[in-house]
Amino acid sequence: METIEMQPPRQKPDPTVPDMDEDELSPIEEVRLTVTNTDDPTLPVWTFRMWFLGLLSCGLLSFLNQFFAYRTQPLVITQITVQVATLPIGHFMARTLPKTRFRLPGFGERRFSVNPGPFNIKEHVLISIFANAGSAFGSGSAYAVGIVTIIKAFYRRSISFWASWILIITTQVLGYGWAGLLRKYVVEPAHMWWPSTLVQVSLFRYINGSLTRKRPKEKKNAGSGGTISKYHNTIARSRFTIEALHEKDEQRMSQAKFFLIALICSFSWYVFPGYLFSTLTNISWICWVFSKSVTAQQIGSGMRGLGLGSFTLDWSAVASFLFSPLISPFFAIVNVFLGYVLLIYVAIPIAYWGVDLYGASKFPIFSSHLFTAKGQTYDITAIVNDKFELDIEKYAEQGRIHLSTFFALSYGFGFATIAATLTHVAVFYGREIYQRYRASHKGKEDIHTTLMRRYKDIPSWWFYLLLAVTLAVSLALCIFLNDQVQMPWWGLLFAGAMAFSFTLPISIITATTNQTPGLNIITEYVMGIILPGRPIANVCFKTYGYMSMAQAVSFLSDFKLGHYMKIPPRSMFIVQFLGTILAGTINLAVAWWLLTTVENICQDNLLPTNSPWTCPGDRVFFDASVIWGLVGPKRIFGSQGNYAAMNWFFLGGAVGPVIIWLLHKAFPKQTWIPLINLPVLLGATAMMPPATSLNFNSWIIVGTIFNFFVFRYRKQWWQRYNYILSAALDAGVAFMAVLLYFSVGLEDKSLTWWGTDGEHCELATCPTAKGIIKDGCPLK
Fold first, then answer.
1. What pLDDT does residue 257 have?
2. Is the pLDDT at 81 greater than 70, yes or no?
3. Which of 135, 204, 123 is nearest to 554 (CA)?
4. Could you tell me which of 151, 511, 597, 774 has the fewest CB atoms within 10 Å of its CB?
5. Are 34 and 239 in contact (CB under 8 A)?
6. Secondary-structure breakdown of the chain: helix, strand, coil percentages, each rounded to the nearest 5
7. Residue among 85, 230, 177 at smallest CA distance from 723
8. 395: helix, coil or strand?
9. pTM of this prediction?
């Protein structure tokens, strides 16, 4: 199967740029094949169109993603939807807005126009960055909103709107302060190439009409190091370079028309799984066949079991947690499938039915809830005292907290993934990272850095001021509103120091290997040992430590995208900063609205059977606050808990990549050995919980259909419509879900019949051990 690579469109030589010698071009082959070596500095970027579409997209995405975050199937509207949807709107505005030029008071003789010419690619890039500024790596909403949710919905305590807003905004922008100062180390050097940004570059150039048919001449190992063989095909596929579509075909439907039709169909269909026939969301037919068998329903339930044979006809369930499968390359789908099978169909059955690990049969086979030793749901509120701290006596009365087998193993796999990522990067990429880092300081500037010298750089004092103000406001929050956030001032400084110290090495790892180790488990583990008994202090520490680092890396990634697309740095900074403030404010406003208007939101035991407001992500966030903060890791994973053996997963994860590397060195001709990527395999199910088997089954099936069969046998259709279909499905579901909520949800108008009575797998949550009694379960 031949792959035709994408070349930059033929452009006139830029007279302001001298002819470049070959060694002055990018040393990374993937960059040379993807990024154009010319720039037009006359293209306007600070336009009315950019501001209008950027603000609109940012506001709309922030509203929709936060609205969906509380639902059982939390669809995330991604940046790709904005990229696809805003392009025709931008061109429409360029055709219809008046071109009149006028003067503004205070600007002298300079003239402005709301329509300065054709809609251009730089405006398009800024609009997309604006829309996605509030979420690190497309997460959907501000991470700190989860703190507000667990305080109000799970702990049933109070936090003021003002304290919530400060918490959200400071955790989102704190990392920007030091990230800007690191740009010269990880953005400007050519060897810091950020593989994931090339996907975005390709998408922007493709949908802005930049495909040609000519195939480039490739040079073997032209300075791109050891990652060419691994990432070349990945990036080539992801950037839609399968076939050139420059030839006009009058018989094919236009992409705009296809998008509109697909959006209408998605919008119309969602009324069935979203309201009229909600069982279509989780079709677990094994439960229907074996309606009285606990084991069969444990195996067949897609929501509360292993999900064998379960599937969905609801796009929100397909795209929840893992994002749209249509935008994920097939090799990634295969890796997720292998990791999913390892956990769900190998580890859990052995632990539950084979060895009864940690008394597994006393608890549901698949649950993220916390339990007592007798299999009853743990009453968390009973062990919290008036100071919002752990009540030792009440905790002793209820006894130790127990986890389901699935939840315990998911933590173990998480521990192993963290360790495996670090050692995998060290043994497989350590030398390459070191060489690239040295080359980034000793090598010449490449053409892209040279072209960016035209634009005014961001003064360093912008970043110093941002860092100082954000840190000062954060300290004020911890000192003067400590009763609401619990974290001491030294905890903030410690979290910031951790995040700062990890930002540069993790940025270098991400920029060279496309792997990003996370700090979430590390931060909550550390704070849980230092200051146990304070749940909100723990999650605040985790958020300041983990999220500020993640936002910093995301900030730098966006700057590399702007570097490749030749966006003026000051425009990038202002758009990212304002987008983050706007998105965080809207996230909080939507969360506050839902938390105060939806009765029993997030309380799945009090909500109606088929209520969508179960907050699966926040449930896991709450459980983490209990495990790491309220009770503390010593009483869960330490000598005072039941799961100390889970710490061995750290060692296993650390040793695993070393063993694979040694096998690769011992048997270099076995090319399949280095393809075993333990961080990918072990981390494939990182979203479980809150994701379920239903989500993974459907995501894998749909992704395989489109990114293997359609990709292989209908390439031209795939390249022309695949990503547009993904955006249309997301948008259609989002708009119908909001419409249903405002039309029938607020009035609590619901239908009651078999098709709206949930999954019909009630026995899936039953324990199988003798003597454990649970309502609705057969006696044993």
1. 84
2. yes
3. 135
4. 597
5. yes
6. 60, 0, 35
7. 85
8. helix
9. 0.84
3-state secondary structure of 46: coil
3-state secondary structure 721-752: HHHHHHHHHHHHHHHHHHHHHHHHHCCCCCCC
CA distances from 742 to 217, 737, 738, 755 (A): 56, 9, 6, 22
State pLDDT tens for residues 417-436.
Answer: 888 888 888 888 777 777 76
What confidence score (pLDDT) does residue 173 get? 93
How far apart are the C-alpha atoms of 348 and 223, rounded to whole Å?
45
Amino acid 426 reads A
Question: Is the C-alpha dihedral spanning 171, 177, 183, 186 positive or negative?
Answer: negative
Selection from 359, 354, 365, 346 nearest residue 296 by Cα: 365
Kindly provide the b/e burial profile for residues 607-646, where b requires at least 16 CB atoms within 10 angstroms of the residue's own CB: beebbbbbbbbbbbbbbbbbbbbbbbbebbbeeebbbeeb
Encode pLDDT of 543-584 as tens digits: 999 989 989 999 999 999 999 999 999 999 999 999 999 999
Contact 408, 401 (CB under 8 A): no
* CA gap 138, 480 in Å, rounded: 33
Which residues touch 316 (CB under 8 Å, ≥6 apart)? 68, 71, 73, 75, 270, 273, 274, 281, 733, 737
Summarised one tens digit per residue, pLDDT across range 663-704 is 988 988 888 888 787 887 888 888 888 899 999 999 999 999
Distance, CA of 564 to CA of 569 (rounded, Å): 11
Q: 345: which DSSP letter? A: I
Closest CA to 616 of 519, 683, 688, 700: 688
Q: Are 45 and 567 in contact (CB under 8 A)?
A: yes
For 538, the token pair is 């723990």
3 state SS for 503-548: HHHHHHHHHHHCCCCCCHHHHHHHHHHHCCCCHHHHHHHHHHHHHH
Vertex 153: Cα angle to 150 and 157 (nearest 5): 80
How is residue 314 annotated by DSSP? -
Of the two residues 246 and 707, the one the predictor is more confident about is: 707
- Burial group, residue 386, by CB count within 10 angstroms (0-12, 13-18, 19+): exposed
What are the CB-based long-range contacts (under 8 Å, 24+) for 484-487?
Answer: 484/158, 484/159, 484/160, 484/163, 484/536, 485/159, 485/163, 485/167, 485/536, 485/537, 485/540, 486/388, 486/534, 486/535, 486/536, 486/537, 486/540, 487/534, 487/536, 487/537, 487/540, 487/541, 487/544
Closest C-alpha to 686, from 428, 420, 501, 429 = 420
> How many Å from the N-terminal Cα to the C-terminal Cα in the chain?
58
The single residue listed with the structure tokens 């890396």 is: 553
For residue 377, list its beta bridge partners.
Answer: 371
Q: How many CB atoms lie within 10 A of CB 110?
A: 9
CA distance 225 to 28: 8
